[in-house]
Amino acid sequence: MTRAADVGRQAPRRVFRDRGEAGRVLADLLGAYRDRPDVIVLGLARGGVPVAWEVAAALHAPLDAFIVRKLGVPGHEEFAFGALASGGRVVVNDDVVRGLRINPQDLRAVAEREGRELIRREAAYRDGRPPVEVTGRTVILVDDGLATGASMLAAVQALREAEPSGIVIAVPAAPESTCREFAGIVDDVVCASMPTPFLAVGESFWDFRQVTDDEVCRLLATPTTGVPAKPAAHTPAEVIGAVAIDAPGGVPPREALAELIGDARIVLIGESSHGTHEFYEARAQITKWLIEEKGFCAVAAEADWPDAYRANRYVRGLGDDTGADEALSGFERFPAWMWRNTVVRDFVDWLRGRNRRSGAQRQAGFYGLDLYSLHRSMHEVIAYLDRVDPKAAARARERYGCFDHTSADDGQAYGYAAAFGAGPSCEREAVEQLVEIQRNALEYARRDGLLAEDDLFYAERNAQTVRDAEVYYRAMFSGRVNSWNLRDQHMADTLEALLNHLDRHRDAPPARIVVWAHNSHVGDARATEVSADGQLTLGQLARQRFGDRARLIGFSTYTGTVTAAGDWGGVAERKAVRPALAGSIEELLHQTGRDAFLTSALLTPEAADPLSAVRLGRAIGVIYRPETERQSHYFHVRPADQFDAMIHIDTTRALEPLEVTSLWIAGETPETYPSGL
Q1: The pTM is what?
Q2: Comparing C-alpha atoms, which of 28, 48, 86, 25 is closest to residue 219?
Q3: Tell me, what DSSP letter sits at residue 669?
Q4: DSSP code for 409
Q5: Which domain of life is it from (predicted)?
Q6: How far apart are CA 474 and CA 425, in angstroms?
Q7: Tens digits of per-residue pLDDT, 286-329?
Q8: 3-class SS at 554?
Q9: Helix (H, G, I), strand (E, B) or coil at 327
């Protein structure tokens, strides 16, 4: 059985601080072997021993070193033609030997030299202690990673001669192909991460310094068994549970929220899926309190700018829409349920009523941050200029006509054509239009006061969205990280522009904004494995731009149901959410035994240590594929640094779309976990 794959990535990820942290992550994944008297842990010396010590200590199992020496090609010793393991087992790659014409005498000389070094190391490491007996026992072989797997294969073959009852391989990082190959050879394989492409083991570590003989000796002399167990209250789940703050329905008490948020001007509230009722409902309730009690004056959502602005007009008593359902009808693009759902509808109605009651006080608005509205934003720019400057509108039509070679409202089709030469690039036209509307902004703004300023700001941001969307859609075909960063930078720029725009009210206190977006945007990328790719997030950019005036709050769940599609553009379904994987932050929070609570290292420093460990984190977007959940929906995170606080709701239910289909009503037949039988 192979577990914990990490496929579908575009570049290596530095996941672990060092070998010790990697061992602790592996120990979580090997929990089924804890306190079993038949289990022993062998670390492949030298690099595997620091990892193995953490595993053995957590499992309360004996530890020993298993030595494997690479057999290097004469004259090119860095290139292996085989390996030599403890017990004298030699594994030779016959294809390499034949291809390089290594003669038997050279092969024997290399093996004898490495054999002498192997014997020296065994004597030095054990300091007279006999090897641990492995016959009839379950052996967990641990290394700091696998590349070709030659050393591990030699270890497995050597161990087999001692007739253990079972062999388990556990490594922090390895190519998926190598892990799957070993899955057919041994009883269990645990690969904490499988970077794609895989370049080298060291790429998964921030600190991959060479392990010394002295360090190996010290670790082997440090007991992993017979040490008094820590009190149960010191387990990570117990620590978090002891200081967790109850949050019924996901809504923490006002006192805790007030302390957490303080004087922050930007509060980003996430969601670990785009289709969970409790996340949306709790976020809406927290936002209502922030607006009513803390003076927040805007919600900025992971939604397209023009579609959200239609809802903004409605909540401020403007426009022609007669109800919230109609005001949200602009959200036609997949996935419409993200914003056309019962929770957002009710919130928009509440916000309109609140604004009506507020009288002369500053009204609260509803805005979008996203950039998918290429054609819709072009239409809105032209519509604005038709009202204020018909000649400028004619120039805008001519410029934006460049995009007519693609099908209407299909930004991806434009990007594909422009990227591969099947159509012209409209970058120059998009930039020219943005520059012109910015150049004329002062004149346009003088006409009708604040209302004109709002309309101008709306048009300017639409022109900026066209410019950024044009770049984004072309970048989609040059690399995932580049296009992701363009999108989150656009959202951060829009957020900052909105804050500055709302600050224009000189008689009002500084503007404060609530952001609604997915955890993968709200969390700080620097605390996740994607940072090694150079990937940015809105949360990271908010911290960099606003410092302590920004707060990041994430949501999580252990199991339940979710509204999601099976494929992009698919129908909304009500899907069963699998219980969270072992080694995940969701599993840890589930183990506290609490139904709904807030945990934060800022509010309760005792939670810092368990939240600072590297764990898997689940992210369900608009697509949920349970059958490939580890590959599709998990990545490594350090929660204490990713968020300022997390709200965990153990069991959640699917968000209800405004347009409910028979497929959604029928739901999904629950699986029998973990086998599905």
Answers
A1: 0.80
A2: 48
A3: P
A4: T
A5: Bacteria
A6: 9
A7: 999 999 999 999 999 999 999 999 999 999 999 899 999 999 99
A8: strand
A9: helix
